[in-house]
Protein 1
Amino acid sequence: VQLVESGGGLVQPGGSPRLSCAASGFTFSSYAITWYRQAPGKERVSVAVISPGGSTNYADSVKGRFTISRDNAKNTVYLQMNNLKPEDTAVYYCGWRGNWGQGTQVTVSS
């Protein structure tokens, strides 16, 4: 199993980056995938999840600003982040059944 996140970086407040998670090693289209984040000194928490059929659920802290989507043909899950705030600064990971990628750092700062 391999999960590879990309798309992070330094973003100004209000910015709108899109993260990608490329998956391999399992039947991607059959499983839910979750985006997590871990801020400095804090635990890793779930921010968004997408089911195999495309149903979504979000943490209250990102609801209305983040959108999770998937492309089963590309074995990729996306996280569109809008109106970023400094408190969104974290390492973002995608996860599947206890498997994690290396994460991608998102830093929101002016």
Note: The two ends are 37 Å apart (CA to CA).
Protein 2
Amino acid sequence: QVQLVESGGGLAQPGGSLRLSCAASGFPFEDYVMRWYRQVPGRERELVAGISYSLIATYYVDGVKGRFTISRDNAKNTVDLHMNSLKPEDTAMYYCNAVPHYWGQGIQVTVSS
């Protein structure tokens, strides 16, 4: 059974930090490109960051470059999103994705004072 389980979300103050983690099981994790997406109500889901199988290549949407870092541990089947210098506009539901097929249930991140 394929599972992607996100954790680490919650409330943060502007300028603060959060680390999201996604634990994968039920498929060959090391063979999949992994991505984080986010979505706010009424808007399309947005790609935030991605990381290749071998950890060499990473991608970030312009609005998070320099603030967010994606990482993965193929031995532990986890992919993390380290979020620093958080802004209110980072508030969204964040989703882990094993490209293209598998999705987590999502986890809420709220940035507010």
Note: The longest strand covers residues 18-25.
